[in-house]
Amino acid sequence: MAWNEPGGKGNPNDPWGNNNRGNKNRGNQPPDLDDALKQLMDKINGLFGKGNGNNNNGGNSGSGAGGFFGIAAAILVVMLAFNSFYTLDEQERGVVLRLGKYLKTESPGLHFKVPLVDQVIPVNTTKVREAEIKERMLTEDENIVEVELNAQYRVADPIAFALRVELPERTLLSAAESALRHEVGSAAMDPILTTGRAVLAEKVQIRLQDYLDRYQTGMVLTNVNIKDARPPAQVKAAFDDVQKAKQDKERFINEAEAYANAVVPEARGRAQRQLEEASAYKDRIVARAEGEAARFNNLYSEYKKAPAVTRERLYIEAMSDVYTNTSKVLVDVKGGNNMMYLPLDKLMQNLPAAKGEGGSLSTGDISRLTDQVLNEVRTRQNSTGNTTRREGR
Q: What's the CA gap between 334 and 331, in Å, rounded?
């Protein structure tokens, strides 16, 4: 028989607890919802050690309130147990506060804390963080530049980072701006915009680290870089013209230095060469004079031994020098009215082809040439004499 079939007796399988109720007034109607809720609350109270209570309304409300507080207490216990343990990874350090006062610093791993009493502030001590600022600043020569600065840092002291300063990142930005303004205000614009950025970044890093240490921020700078430095957009065209003029100036200076470096050594080389040539000429003249003096002394000694032979030899050598430098000779004949012209170049063509070293005439050639000259002189004297006698007759 089904639990909801009509009958005189209640069905023991009725889940709604209607076994003791009569059905003469309900017939086939469903069970009461209030009764079902009441039975559910009784079962929950039984789970937490509460009795079913009496049948009046006061007992039912007390049982419901007790079950609710029991559930809340169980949830609270679970939450407290869950919040009593925490984990720190390898990059973090935990700053533990008990009732707002510093207690200790925990290392990586699983740790216990007293719920609602202890507070843990995890701080990453190995991550390299960055901060950037971009500001317009006044230089020492009263020019305005736009500077972009990038600062990289890490947390070296987690206690100071978490407790000493309320907003460490904002403090870092303010200190970086102050240090940058101090260094830019102490430098001219040209080095900042051209070759002095590295020096400027180094000075800013030293000053900024000093500020951070004095403020006890617990931060250590790893790198400071000047990303960009440029004039304001309103004066960029004029600034570009100035830069071009400076570049032209540097180019002209470099060209002048290159020209000087090329001309000065060349001039010095020519001067040194002339000095060397003069020194060599001096040595040559002195040596030749000394040689001539020694030759004259030797010649004088030989002359004293044989004057006639030495005199003839000297005459022949002198005539050799004279004939070597000229090809035409004019001879004034004693007792005659005419001057004879001797074409030595024609006479030398009749000589044998053999010559001495360097194309000069040998002693034999000079002797033969001398003989030809004397014969030519005698011939012309004879012809001149005959002509004179004929005219006298």
A: 9
pLDDT one-digit tens code per residue, 229-255: 888 877 778 777 877 888 899 999 999
Residues 174, 177, 181, CA angle at the centre, nearest 5°? 145
Helix, strand, coil percent values for the chain (each to nearest 5) = 55, 20, 25
Task: Tell me the sheet residues that pair with 220.
Answer: 154
Angstrom distance (rounded) from CA 379 to CA 131: 122
Residue type, 350: N
Q: In this structure, is the dihedral angle defined by the CA atoms of residues 340, 345, 350 and 354, taken in order, positive or negative?
A: positive
Picking from 128, 311, 253, the residue whose alpha carbon sits closest to that of residue 319 is 311
Pick the closest to residue 224 from 295, 299, 281, 148 (CA basis).
148
Identify whether the C-beta of residue 133 lies closer than 8 Å to the C-beta of residue 176.
Answer: yes
- Distance from C-alpha of 53 to C-alpha of 196, rounded to nearest angstrom: 89
- Residues 144 and 229 sit within 8 Å (Cβ to Cβ): no
Tokens of 148: 């972009």
Task: Put residue 359 in one of left, alpha, beta given phi > 0 → left and psi -120 to 50 → alpha.
Answer: left
Q: Which residue has the tokens 């003989």?
A: 371
CA 176 to chain centre: 24
Four-residue CA torsion sign, 293, 297, 300, 306? negative
Which CATH number is 129-231 given? 3.30.479.30
CB atoms within 10 A of CB 196: 17
Nearest-5° angle of CA 57, CA 58, CA 62?
115
Q: Is the pTM of this model over 0.85?
A: no
Instruction: Provide the token pair at 202.
Output: 């180094």
Q: How far is residue 202's CA from residue 205's CA, in Å, rounded to a whole number?
A: 5
CA distance 288 to 293: 8
pLDDT digit string (tens) for 148-194? 999 999 999 999 998 888 899 999 999 999 999 999 999 988 888 88
The token pair that represents 65 in the structure block: 């309130």
Q: Which residue has the tokens 């901060």?
A: 131
